[in-house]
Amino acid sequence: MFAKNSGVAARAIDGAHRAVNAAQATQKYMRVLHIVFLLTVVLYLWVPWMLVGGQATESPFVVVLVLGMVALTSVAAVLFFQARRVRPAAEQLRLRPDDAQAAARWRTGLILCFAFSETIVLFGLALRLLGAPWKFSGVFYAVGALLLLACRPKLELLPE
Question: How many domains does the chain have?
Fold first, then answer.
């Protein structure tokens, strides 16, 4: 009798899993990935504290400027992918939640946005490990973290 009831429960669970459309499944996956990227920012704040401690030496200001210029291109890349990939795919998913290609484009665009945002945080980490003070490296951390927060995976799905 137990085996028979567990089979019914398994079919009910399997049916519930099939009811989740591509948009919902992708959104759940992207939320988990987004949290992981945000947690790495906290980790990157902790790493220099453990390796370098509170010491700061003056790193060449030209290094800060060069990484700042590269970080600006990363900001531009995030804005580009948000406009060209994420928003159009999100609109398609809003209208057709089962569109697997739109879900893939949305997921790819978000991953690219996360990666470029994380790159800016890594520039802050590199500067801090090179001995730059927090007043310089902290800007990179803050901009990267704010971009990650702005790239929050959200879909406004139509009610079924």
Answer: 1
Tokens of 5: 């009831």
Q: What is the DSSP string of 5-55?
A: HHHHHHHHHHHHHHHS-HHHHHHHHHHHHHHHHHHHHHHHHHHHHHHTTT-
Structural domain harbouring 84: 22-150
pLDDT given at position 119: 97
pTM above 0.90, yes or no: no
The reply to whether 123 falls in a domain is: yes
Let me know: does 33 contact 114? Beta carbons within 8 Å.
yes
Q: Report the distance separating Cα 154 and Cα 45, nearest Å.
A: 26
The 10s digit of each residue's pLDDT in 48-78 is 888 876 666 666 788 999 999 999 999 999 9
- Establish if 158 belongs to a structural domain: no
- Which of 90, 145, 156 lies closest to 118, judged by CA? 145
Helix (H) or strand (E) segment spanning residue 75: helix 61-81
